[in-house]
Protein 1
Amino acid sequence: MVWLNAIVQGVLLGGLYALFAAGLSLIFGVMRLVNIAHGDFIVLGSYLALVVVQTLGLNPLMSALIVVPLMAVFGYVLQRVLLNPTLGKDLLAPLLVTFGLSIIIQNGLLTIFTADSRRVMAGAIETASVSIGGLSLGVLPLAMFATAIAVILGLDFIFTRTSLGRAFRATSEDAEIAKLMALDNRHIYAMAMALSAAIVGLAGIFLAVRTNFDPSTGPMRLIFGFEAVIIGGLGSLWGTLAGGVVLGVAQTLGAAIDPGYQVLAGHLVFFLILILRPRGLFPRMDG
Amino acid sequence: MSAPLLRIARLSSGYADFQALFDVSFDLHAGEALALIGANGAGKSTLLKTIVGLLPCASPMVAHRGESIGGLSADKIVRRGIALVPEGRRLFRSLSVEENLVIGGERGRAGEWSLERVYGLFPILREKRQQPSTSLSGGQQQMVAIGRALMANPEIILFDEISLGLAPAIIKDIYAALPAITRTGVSAILVEQDVTRALGFAQSFVCLQEGRVSLAGKPAEHSRADIVAAYFGSH
């Protein structure tokens, strides 16, 4: 029962990791940009949620109504002003710029919020649980997992059914010909970053409610996100969810053996998959 | 006299370390089909890419309806009604046949070209509408590339190497469709290796040699020998 419980909790935790990973995967897929500041974006979302909850007294989950649009605007402007000019044949320029951005965000948060660790209190929902087949499932992890599935479904819908999705696919495949479709690449890239940042906002809220955070928490979330993307297979949306779940289960099983093994177990499974299936569990067919 | 539909005036263009076009000038009039001929490397594709904004160009050198469009980005030029059917088709592999057509029209101008109209012109595409564009033959891919450009309802359509790599029977089919396009009032610039076929279709031509205009006019005004000399150079 302990093991079954650990696996189920791991699956639910995987939802959060999939949220970390989805935005990362989206950006890489559309513009081949590796956003080193992604984890810090998540923590920025957490602080934004903290401020919204403290000043407006909103329920943390309702703070999404403000945090998500704000993060989307942040993503759009950031891409237009700072990141678009770095895109080109060289992968190194955007890598360095987002690395710098990561340092700026961490230090900015440190200056404003100090290094104290924070937490957003969500009230009764934090401890609420439902009992299924002898297993006790937290309402919050369930909400997290449901949100992750909704986000992946939403992204899948956008990519396959909408004009914006066609524009994402076309631009990522052949940016020059996409211009001939009257597409403004700078706008398309900014829309992708806005979408990524909106998802990051959701991830930030769940992170803030689930655990303590401080300005230096970002890089570890980036690593979890990366691991989920690589395990799942680059460019595959459902693979990203699967990658998050594999990582989550590995961590909770590790923790069930010894609490000290939680993060290590995740890294070990990540390396194992990198050795056995370097293209991930669900590589994109047209790779 | 009103301004020509498209005026190329002393256009020089090229790539970072290589100039491909020198002082090229010609006009394209409304409803006209113009053949752009010349040997490999004469600068034909460079000229089309410069017109449509994929290559940089100093502003006064290209004018559309009397208004300079040199220096505009490609997406803005396409919105003005100039479309390019690129060399090698370059369809979006991750999009289905129909999606390739739809994306061509979504941000273009309003007009009479629609999915239905493109399917009417190339009926085979209707049967293959849901298939990935990679599953089509070369000729069918060229039909999608032409349809994709038409969906933007262009006033001017630029065809780059329209028959390159296609079987003769397919080339015949493609050429058979061209009058249906130009009849709707669309002007065309056609880059083509097959000079006889191109001159048979076009009302006027421009021959490029090493980035310069070596001969221009109406096909009937020039002897075959003149055109051959302009094409290959008289050494």
Protein 2
Amino acid sequence: MTSGTRRTGIEKAMKTVLLISALASVLIVLLIFIFTMKEATPAFREIGVWKMLSDTTWRPGNDQFGILAMIAGSGLVTLGAVLIGVPLALGTAVFLSEIAPCWIAGIVRPSIELLAGIPSVVYGLFGMVVLVPLVRTIPAPGNAGYGLLAASIVLAVMILPTIANISEFAIRSVPKGYKEGSLALGATKWETISRVIIPAAKPGIISAVVLGLGRALGETIAMIMVIGNSVILPTAITDNPLSIFLSRARTLTGNIAVEISYATGIHESALFATGVVLFILIMLVNGSARFLMKMGVKS
Amino acid sequence: MEAERAEKTRMMTEDYSLFYGDFKALNNINIKIPTNKITAFIGPSGCGKSTLLRSFNRMNDLIPGVTTAGTIFLDGRNVAREDVVELRKKVGMVFQRPNPFPKSIFDNVAYGPRLHGTKNRSDLAVIVEKSLKRAALWEEVKDDLHKSGMSLSGGQQQRLCIARAIAIEPEVILMDEPASALDPVATLKIEELMNVLKRNYTIAIVTHNMQQAGRVSDYTAFMLTDEKRAGNLIELGPTKQIFTTPSDSRTEDYISGRFG
Amino acid sequence: MKKRNAAQNTAFGVFWLTGAVAVLIMGFVVGYIMVKGLPGITADFFTTSPRGGLSGDGGIYSTIVTTFYMIVVTLVFATPLGVGAAIYLTEYSSNIDNKAICKLVSIARFGIETLAGVPSIIFGLFGYALFVSALNMGFSILSASLAGACLIIPVIIRTTEEALKSVPQGYREGSLALGANRWETTWKVVLPAALRGISTGILLSAGRIVSETAIFFVTLGGSYRVPHSLMSGGRTMALHVYYLAMETRAFDKAMSTAAVLVALIIIMNLTINTITSRISTKQG
């Protein structure tokens, strides 16, 4: 009898302990939000939220803390990465799920897995040593190689595995009946893929792209290493509007990482405010990906 | 018997065998599918009747490791030598589970014609209306052509799939247990529809339901696995004869319910 | 018909190309790092510590030690929490009739999903504010591991959940039918059966710690000395690559260190794949 009560006691205790560990993540998220928010409050109060978001001048020595240039930097580098990475990632996803013979997929899939595993600092190093000198060969006044283009290419490779994996999963989840139905009507394989399978997998593919976007916005180290880190609103450096990608820039993540170790007072607070903006931005992006995924499941 | 011989043959197999890797799934099948008739394939589960049906439009090509021996003819031409896309245009298929695309009713039916070159919206509208009428679905959906095909009931979905199949004017329609996922009322509708459709099309149907085979088909083929689990054709004949005076005792056993 | 086949051939050509490009990118990045990095790797490289200075003299001994400490300490914090959470979510949360607890479970799930999406620099910022500053732990292995644990908890939860779900229901029923309670069943039957899957999750998390730079950049201090306690600062291999490239500008040494990192990641990937394929052959 006593052993029975002891056993029930252990069961009850464990149940509580396990529930608490399940809730630990919630606690961490709350702590993160509270702490960054608390540290950011002085900046928001003294500088003003709108002033921070709309001002392009970031001069800590001068007590000027506008982060618009960094928002533009993060936005543009993400846009560049999406333009380069998404076609490649979606092509690979379709290739792996519908076209590649088994043994070829057995080469491509581990390659992508490895791309996902390579540390971002290694991508950064690769960018500095290979891509930056390559970009520097583009003739344009003031083109130093470091800038949005090199950073976009690095970032494109980094988000490729995320987007390719989730899209491949989405394409594979399309019911087999759609494919058979289309082929039985005399559609070619490509017509079946483009007119039935991809449209049916669309919600999953879109949320894959959005999740890739979230990853891109959050990347830090590789960006610091190749983007140049100048706090300027990127502009086209020649007549060609595309030359905006040859401009140097700084990302929101880079702003935090580069300056946090020596910042004090309102400057430090402004960096936490940068973190809050980044956090909210990424929550919005990831939230919409989750929303799209759920919509896809319903329809 | 004389009248039978006068009938034209639309499809025919000659010493046809099919293998999944080393496993022989169909053994030396010789069968004729007469034009503008309904031929039913019956037999216990796993006897290869669905596999045989899927051989007629080469859907088995999709399965890795499948090899075949012997020949299948459509109008005297070897289907293995035909372009598979052209073949499937002539030999349509309706599946066990209704599988409309996640598109509008209109786009589901127009899918095939669009592929095969009809681009004009008003031409497509004519085809869609005609096909839906032939599939006895027009009256129920004519005001909702833009609605998703998935929003229909199971029976309506299956008739939509039939409309989709006949929109490209096939010569043969293969039906793989088309009513097994439907309720009795919807099943009856499909059966009535088949009787009308056979005026214009040659129909081959696989069914588990022997009453259904008896009700709708002109000819019945009985299939059974041998000791090596390969599917064999036991006999083929006019449905009445198969159900009343089969020539093979195994057919009789199956019909009278002594087989699973 | 010819046009339709031509369209298909063109499209498939493009898809083959994208597949090939993905493999080529991997081959080029890994190949470049290896070709440039391996020549600089000698036995000394592993056994001596960086000497600092402007040319980045010395090896990577202390960074290996720091990386190892970081892996161990982070896993000590994250594994019990992660595995515990996964056990609750798979083994306990299915048959709850208490509405309040049901609500808690869905809140927990939301928290885990959110945590998985938090970018690492935010974990760094949080670790800097809470552990380094507020709790006065300074730039140390302890601060960095606590911040790093936040990063890998969602990884461990997800992989453990998958491992637990793949344990056949019959195991649980068999144990419960013998009068064991939920916890005894989980501890004695389910966990041992899921051990391989859980260990891949832990290995995956170790890989994340090896690769992570941003969090440690703002919480670990960056000292290249051999750490002597949890309160020492330090420099992981990944962080060392950053400092060599960005501050010392010693690209040869950076490449060699990167080559070691990439080799380590490849070995970890191969190990994980071997374990996973053994699981599937065992169960298939």
